[in-house]
Amino acid sequence: RKEVEQDPGPFNVPEGATVAFNCTYSNSASQSFFWYRQDCRKEPKLLMSVYSSGNEDGRFTAQLNRASQYISLLIRDSKLSDSATYLCVVDLTGTASKLTFGTGTRLQVTL
Amino acid sequence: DTGVSQDPRHKITKRGQNVTFRCDPISEHNRLYWYRQTLGQGPEFLTYFQNEAQLEKSRLLSDRFSAERPKGSFSTLEIQRTEQGDSAMYLCASSPGLAESNEQFFGPGTRLTVL
């Protein structure tokens, strides 16, 4: 089993749709959780941190379920510019050191 | 630009040659990380520094790889006797090193092609 697991997609959705990505992680002691966005041939960029109570940033909502070791990202009202790969990222060690990345979920938003 | 910078952006080399990459972190970030990313995969951790101390190395970092951060600012990653399997994007990241958060900020990467 991978330490951080995501559905690679691709998810093809029309503009304006709502899309959700899920991710599971292996270590219950993990402390920090993030979603990063990566455009083709570019570096990953932090989209949002994921907090225990859940958090929202505009059209993006992230949730954490520690009991199920599960993280989600919801994108509402998808835009063409949301097309990218979304990486689920976890500090599995709980020591604020290295990050472990999922393989990423590719999103393609179409007209 | 006050972000993480990496040099060179692209490197093409022949098998068996040595290559060295440089990373300049965000100023005042005391943690610096190196990752490797291959096509269709997420970045994989290689090593990280807190100031000038190298605190952890992945088993992916064979003895042909060495990283330094001599003055606690910029870092170099050297690969000796390159192999075709070393072809990848090498990403550097930095973070403030706060205990309560591990947000890391990435540079643009160095894309290595070994012929």
Average pLDDT number of chain B = 93
Order of helices and strands of chain B: EEEEEEEEEEE
Overall pLDDT level of chain A? 93
Radius of gyration of chain B: 13 Å
User: Which structural class fits the helix and strand makeup of chain A?
Assistant: mainly beta
The helix-and-strand class of chain B reads mainly beta
Q: How many helices of chain B does DSSP assign?
A: 0
Gyration radius of chain A, to the nearest Å?
13 Å
Oligomerization category of the chains in this entry = heterodimer
Q: Work out the number of β strands of chain A.
A: 11
Give the proportion of residues in helices of chain A.
Answer: under 10%
Structural shape of chain A: globular
- The SSE string of chain A, one letter per element, is EEEEEEEEEEE
Beta strand % of chain A: over 45%
Return residue spans of chain A where pLDDT drops below 50 for at least 5 consecutive residues: none
Largest sheet of chain B: 7 strands, mixed
Number of strands of chain B: 11
Distance between the termini of chain A: 37 Å
The helix tally of chain A amounts to 0
Biggest protein-protein interface? A-B, 23 and 26 residues
